[in-house]
Amino acid sequence: MARSIRIEFPGAYYHVMARGNRRHAIFHDDDDRRFFLATLSEACAMTGWRVHAWVLMKNHYHLFIETPEANLVTGMSWLQNTVTRRHNVRHAAWGRLFGDRYKAVPVDGADPWHYRTLADYIHLNPVRAGLIKPKARESILDYPWSSVAGGWALPPNKRPKWMVAQEGLRRFDLPDSVAGRRRLVEQLDRRAIEEEMKNCGVPVVPAEVDARSSHLRRGWYWGGQTFAAKLQKLTDQIAKGHPHLSRSYRNTPQLRAHSEGQAEEWLKEGIQAAGLAARELPQLKGSDPRKLALAELLWKRTTVSQEWIARKLAMRSAANVSQQLRRLDRKHVLSKVPPAMRRFLGNAWQAEG
C-alpha cells in the first residue's frame, strides 16, 4: 500500500489514530493508560500541541490535535517511540508496540461542522465498541478514558493543561459552565440511544462527496472542497520538492487526486498539439506515435493507471499500453509527431523535473 505523505503546516488540525502491532493490545490496564496520557502531556509541552479530543481503547487510540507549529512528524515520532519504550520496560517486553504507521488525517478544524462531527466520532467510539450500553442507562461519562470524562465534563481547574475543552464547548455553542458541560453529555447520550450502535457518531456523507477523499474512516482529509484544494496545493509542493519520490509514494490518495487532474490537462493539451480531436482517437492504431508519446508522458509523470491511459487514449487495454511502452523508442516516436506536439512534450517533461 502506498505510504501517505505527511502534510504539515502551522495551525494544522489532525485526526490521529494508531493501532497495536497485529491489532494486539497497547493498553493492558489503567496504569498503561495513565502512562500514555502522561507521555502525551510531555509531547504537548515540547511541541505546543493543543489536544481537542481523545479516546483510548484497548488496541488503539484516537487524537484530535492542533499543531500551532508544523511539527506533527517530530512530535509523533517522539510520542510513539517513548510510549513503546516505557511500555516494554513496564511489561518486560521488546519489539514494536504499534503496527504500521500511525494515520494522520488533516482536518478543516476551522469549519464548525467538520470539527463537531470529528469530536463526536471520537467521543462515541466506546459506544460503537460496545463498552457503553446506552439502553442499560449507561452514559458517555461512564467511560473514563476519553476527553469527555477526562476533560470536557470537568471544570477548568481539573483539566490537563494541554486540553482545549473550553474551545471545544464553544464550537458546540455551549458555555464552559456546569449547565453547558451537562448539555454536552446529554447530547452525546441522546445520540448513543437514538443511533445504531455500530454507526453511532459516524456522519452520513453527501452523495456528491467522494468518500475515498473526505471521510472519517477512509478518507485522506476531513473537510470541504476549499480545504481539499489547499491540501492538494501543499501536496504538490512537497512532491515537486522531492522529485525522486517513488511511484508507490506518489500513488497516495493526495497525489493521485492532484495527478489525475494534471493528466486530464496534459491529455487535452497533447491531443490539441497533435492536431487531433478526441473523437478521432478510436480510429488510430495503438502504435500511433502521437498516442505513444502521450501514453509515456502520462505513465512516467503522473500516477494514473495504465487502464486509465488505455481508456482515455483508446488503446484497447492496460496490457496493450504496457506492451507498447516496453517497446517504445522515444527518439523514433518524437521524430514522427508534429513540431507543435514536440514542443508541448518538451515543456511537459521539463515542468515535472
Key structural traits:
alpha+beta, 2 domains, elongated, 4 strands, 8% strand, single chain, 353 residues, Alpha-Beta Plaits
Describe this structure in words.
By secondary structure, the protein is of the alpha+beta class. It folds into 2 domains: 12-199, Transposase IS200-like (Alpha-Beta Plaits, 2-Layer Sandwich); 244-351, no CATH class. It is built from 15 helices and 4 strands. It has helices at residues 30-47, 72-91, 112-123, 125-128, 148-152, 165-171, 178-194, 225-241, 247-250, 253-273, 289-301, 306-313, 318-327, 330-336, 339-351; strands spanning 12-19, 50-56, 60-67, 103-107. It has a 4-stranded antiparallel beta sheet with strand order 2-3-1-4, with helices on both faces. Helix 8 crosses helix 10, helix 11 packs antiparallel against helix 12 and helix 11 packs parallel to helix 15 (339-351). The longest helix has 21 residues, at 253-273. The mean pLDDT is 88.
Reconstruct the topology from this structure.
Layout: E1 12-19, H1 30-47, E2 50-56, E3 60-67, H2 72-91, E4 103-107, H3 112-123, H4 125-128, H5 148-152, H6 165-171, H7 178-194, H8 225-241, H9 247-250, H10 253-273, H11 289-301, H12 306-313, H13 318-327, H14 330-336, H15 339-351
Antiparallel strand pairs: 1-3, 1-4, 2-3
Helix pairs in contact: 1-2, 8-10, 10-15, 11-12, 11-14, 11-15, 12-13
